Amino acid sequence: MTIVDAIAEPLPRAVIDLAALRRNVAHLTALIAPAETMLAVKADAYGHGLLPIAEAGLEAGATSLAVLEVPAGLVLRAAGITVPLLAWLHGADTDWRTAIEADIELGISAVWQLDAIAAAGADRPAVVHLKVDTGLSRNGATREQWPHLIDAALELQREGVVRIRAAWSHLADASIADDETSLAEFRSAVAEAEERGARFEILHLAASSAGIRMPEARFALVRFGIAAYGFSPFDDTTGAELGLEPVMRLEAPVVEVHVGGTTHARIGIGFGDGVPVLGIAKTSVLLAGQRCRVIGVDVDTMLVDAGSARVAVGDTAVLFGSGRDGTVTAEKYADWAETIADEMVTGVAVRVPRVYEN
């Protein structure tokens, strides 16, 4: 077997189709009207790039943004994003004063967070979304803690330290029956808060799953995450069947070609770039117009069997993409890797350049 050619620096890339993102957001926004779209851009917009995705989503009809941590919100504010912006995962080192003065709205799950806001000494009230746990157990006040959270927030509102804007929660999305139970629990928690004197400007509960299939859970807005990036939140339905388009295409060049009884091509991307090792024997890439079986993967390359295809160094192999023209989607690749599309796209390493197409 002879190495025909080689190049020294493989350059994988994640190509981000901003037009597809806009179409997804517009489609979802039309679906849930008159509720509004809050676009979730946590985890660097699911690996797609925080600022370009935020800007494209707002152009397409999203009216607010959700991040996880305050620092990501500050990046958006520094870039000139002025729409309502919610951050809800806080730690002991959260810069509460900077967040409040940057007009980042804060998801609040515990009294200690309200105490930290009061101690921050900001020159304006903190806008807060009070979160109750309705069964997901991710965060949020339990029903036992909820009255204390409401009372503490009301006291700080009377003092001018906070402004209570919303009550909210997450659904577990385990089943329709579970979500209906959680919806009833949320309504009960809101009613209890109102009995104690709270008045909410908005309520929000649904993310991608309930936003699509559970109209009664939409309230004022839906927090769309993975659906906006082109993937289904359901096990029994693909993104394409929901009218969605994948936004990311992951591709890499051929860096070596070995010619023998069959052609083996080495591709410049590996598990160091986020390619899953689990299920690798099931996977294939699109190369030279055909599906080529993956033989193995190492830290920064993978080897594929190109059969009799005419392959040259510098040719492009596509791991996942739109699902058209012979490519598979990240949903399909995730099936091979026994994971989910969310993990496929967020797992693409930071060292892989993001290249944007409008």
Question: In a nutshell, what does this entry contain?
Answer:
The protein is built from 11 helices and 17 strands. With 358 residues, it is of the alpha/beta class. The two termini are 43 Å apart.
Key features?
single chain, 358 residues, alpha/beta, nine-stranded mixed β-sheet, eight-stranded parallel β-sheet, 11 helices, 17 strands, 25% strand
Q: Biggest β-sheet, characterized?
A: 9 strands, mixed
SSE order: EEHEHHEHEHEHEHEHEHEEEEEEEHHE
Q: Nearest-angstrom radius of gyration?
A: 23 Å
Q: How large is the count of helical segments?
A: 11
Question: How much helicity do the residues have?
Answer: 25-40%
Structural class: alpha/beta
Taking all residues together, what is the mean pLDDT? 94
Low-confidence segments, ≥5 residues, pLDDT <50? Answer: 1-8
Number of E strands: 17
User: What would the principal axes of the Cα set say about the shape?
Assistant: elongated
Q: How much β-strand is present in the residues?
A: 15-25%
Distance between the termini: 43 Å
Q: Can you walk me through this structure?
A:
- The protein has helices spanning 18-32, 42-46, 50-59, 70-78, 96-101, 111-120, 146-158, 176-195, 208-213, 330-336, 341-346, and strands at residues 2-6, 13-17, 36-40, 64-66, 85-87, 105-108, 126-131, 162-168, 202-204, 221-224, 248-259, 263-267, 284-287, 290-297, 302-307, 316-320, 354-357.
- By secondary structure, the chain is an alpha/beta fold.
- Strands 1, 2, 11, 12, 13, 14, 15, 16 and 17 form a nine-stranded mixed β-sheet that branches.
- Strand 5, helix 5 (96-101) and strand 6 form a beta-alpha-beta unit.
- Helix 1 packs across helix 3.
- The two termini are 43 Å apart.
